[in-house]
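Predict the structure of Regulator of ribonuclease activity B domain-containing protein.
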Amino acid sequence: MQNTYFDQETYETEIALEVNEDVLSRIYSDGITNTDMLPVEFFFLTDTEEKALELKECFLQNYPDYSDLEILNYDGDIEIRGVSIPIEMNLNTINIWNIEMWDLGYQFDCRLDGWQVQSS
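Done. Here is the predicted structure for Regulator of ribonuclease activity B domain-containing protein.
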């Protein structure tokens, strides 16, 4: 499949893992520690509902413990959102998860647009 939304150049150059350090710093300021395990809410964007449905099906088959999978219209794009299993809130673990999601999204022409956790 030729990616028309999440192209190869973007895939190869825009993962921006350095942003994770800033996000974690904000999370830590809310009292979360780097050993806490929290579910991660994630957001993918794409341009067709078909691609979103294919990614959602992949999650259902390969990540059955991920929850709250939804497909929504989002400013002219299609958003796929969900919640991961609890992940350790340290930079290495988050970066590994981020890379896995970035690669997975590319397979379905869906770009990982962001992630967040709910702090107490």
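The mean pLDDT is 95.
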